[in-house]
Design a protein that fits this description.
Layout lengths: L4 H15 L2 E7 L12 E8 L4 E2 L12 E9 H9 L4 E10 L24
């Protein structure tokens, strides 16, 4: 029985090729609002039961600022989990960047309001 060394080489090349494949979807705010002020933060989220149960990302680093950019990524490993579980479990990586702080109107040069004058009764 003859061995086929080309088959193994092709299998290794396919595994390496598919192992590095991934897809990215990015949403970015237009203009200056899309300029991120923070480093990207992220986590792997799971959707279970064909989307009936979905994890929500815990965005706790923005300190009440808006999001400048959100990126959703998947890879072959995540796709394989989805296929093997027939869609019952679907992982994905979500990353976000917070927007720069926006100044509130009226903060520049605002003067303090003096307290009201009190009138004393005689």
């Amino acid at each position: 029985m003859a061995k086929r060394p080309g088959w193994r080489r092709a299998a290794v090349v396919l595994c390496l090729g598919f192992g590095s494949a991934c897809a990215h979807y990015r949403v970015q705010a237009p203009g200056a609002a899309g300029t991120g002020a923070t480093e990207p933060q992220g986590e792997v989220l799971w959707s279970l039961g064909w989307g009936l149960v979905q994890e929500r990302p815990r965005v706790d680093n923005c300190q009440d600022q808006a999001l400048a950019e959100v990126t959703q990524s998947t890879n072959v490993g995540f796709a394989l989990v989805s296929v093997l579980t027939l869609g019952l479990a679907m992982p994905q990586r979500v990353e976000w960047r917070c927007a720069k702080a926006q100044p509130t109107p009226g903060d520049l040069g605002a003067r303090p309001v003096p307290p009201p004058a009190t009138v004393e009764a005689p």
